[in-house]
Structures are given as structure tokens and as C-alpha cells.
UniProtKB/TrEMBL annotation:
Origin: domain of life: Bacteria
Residue ranges constituting the RapZ C-terminal domain according to the UniProt record: 207-325
Name of the gene this protein is made from: yvcJ
InterPro entries for the chain: P-loop_NTPase, RapZ-like, RapZ-like_N, RapZ_C
PANTHER family hit by this protein: RNASE ADAPTER PROTEIN RAPZ (PTHR30448:SF0)
Name this polypeptide is given: GlmZ(SRNA)-inactivating NTPase
Residues binding ATP: G52, M53, S54, G55, A56, G57, R58, S59
Residues where GTP binds: D103, V104, R105, S106
Entry keyword set: ATP-binding, GTP-binding, Nucleotide-binding
Gene Ontology MF terms in the entry: ATP binding; GTP binding
Amino acid sequence: MSAGAHTVVSRENGSASRMGEIMSSEPTFMGEGHPPGENALDEGMPFVILTGMSGAGRSTAARSMEDLGWYVVDNLPPEMLSELGRLMARPSSTVRRLAVVADVRSMEFFDALFSALMRLREAGINPRIIFFDADDESLVRRFESVRRPHPLQGEGRLLDGIQAERARLADLRSVSDLVVDTSGLNVHQLSAKVRSMIAEATQVRLRMAVVSFGFKYGVPLDADVVFDMRFLPNPFWIPELRPFNGLDAPVSEYVLSRPGAVEFLERLDSVLQVMIEGYLSEGRRYVTVAIGCTGGKHRSVAVAQALSDRIGTAEVSVMTFHRDLGRE
């Protein structure tokens, strides 16, 4: 496996336009940007804002980041965000990594967050926004498991509250630096995903998630690019291979030995290298590559694993997630 590769089996309107203005210059995340000494945040202190759908994993992510040594502030009023950022940016501050959990469900909070981010940027402080999302089915299941109503449910159904919140947060989601899809993940899997994303190595310039999935279960919400492996023969129809998955040698060897498989991997590797250079020049820090087949068990798993083994470098950390493995 290449350097930096990890595998996990299981990622408008006026307001959006204004939010887009503050994100347009690609804010920093891992200590790159301002010259040394100009700003403590950019010397070595990542500053992130955790937001997103209720029940999508913000609190779990916050706890995981605390375990990794981050200073986490929960539900800080947006009006206080800029002042906190300035305090933490002082040379005397001992806080090196700051995460703020923002619960933004009203237009007033959205406008206040926009204003706070504008003030931070004017001060040379550039937080990144991480938006946690999940499909309606996963959110309904999580709320029902804890027997709690959705904050926006009112007298209506649980699904009504979820859909109302999704509509209110659509603009914020569209301008977030990273959208994390937690659909189908339990608490332990989400913690593992967060720990993989928040890596310690500052030399890593880009984090790439390679996600295998089954089209029958839907395309991952956070996918930046999607590739379809259904052009390859399906091992499902070979009785002796059906019980295995793409991580097992018999299936992997079968899939990768089919006509076109190696050529596809070589060309995809070349395309991704070009894309990586472009992402780096544009200031992107995360990208999700989704590899799909029918059920997410054989072809997509084998190809995603093979791709991950090819592209990890000292500058590109590759995380591999097999989202639908085990569902069949």
C-alpha cells in the first residue's frame, strides 16, 4: 500500500452569494497561507467550523476532535465567533487547533455567521467550514433510536423537520469547504472517519477519500467525481466468487484481470494526477472519488482498493472507505 493510504470498511440565493464571497480566496486549513509570524492561526493552528444537519454527526465529530487535542467550543453564538478567533490568534495563546460547533437553523444565525466570517477574513483569519450531512433515512433512524423530536419538527412529522432544516441549510452547504456524508455510519465508524480526516502530518497537502459504493444504494452525497465500474464483468454471476468480496484475492484478481481493467486504472491514475495538481493550485484540501458498481461488493471494492494503492504519496493522503460492503 502506498504512503499515506488508509482503509476503513463501513464521506442560489443572495445569502449563498454573499457566503461565496468570503470563501472565494480559498481559506487555509493546515497552516499554509500568510507569511511566517503574520498570524498564529496560519502558522500552525487549523481553525474549523463544524455545522450541518441535526443528527448527522457534529457532536460525535467534536468529541473525536477533542480526543485528538483540538480545542472545541460547542454552540457558540455567531456574534462571538470573530472575537474568539482573534483571542486564539494572539501569539500568547496556547491553543493550536480550534473547532467551533455552529448550529445555524435560522436566517438570523446565517446572517450573523456570514458577518462573523467576514470580520475574521478582514483580520487575516481563515476558518474552514465542515458540513455534516446524511440521507433522510439515516437521520430518521437516528432520531427514532434516541426517541427525541427534531428541533424543527414542531407538531408535524419527524421527516417534516428534517426536510425543513435541509432547506434552510442548503445555502451554507453549498459554500462549505468540505461536506461529510455520514449516511449508514454508526458512532464508531464516524469517529474513525473524522480521525482519518484530521491527520497530524502537516506535510500532507491533499486528503483524498476513495469510496466504493453500490448504485442500488445511491451515490455518496459528498462525491466530487464518480466512476462507474459496471462495464466490467460481474463476479456475482460466478458461483464460486459470489461469497467473496473485492478485498478477497479471488475476486480482486478476477476483476483486475478482465480486459480493460488495468488500462482503466492506468488512465484514471493519470487523470487523477492532473486533477490533484489542479486541486492543489486552487487551494483544495479534500476530494472524494467515488467508485461504483451494482451492489458495492465486488468490482467497485477491488478497483477502489487498487486505485488507493497507486496514488498515495507523501503529499496526498488516501483514505479508502467501502461504504456498502456487508450490506448484501
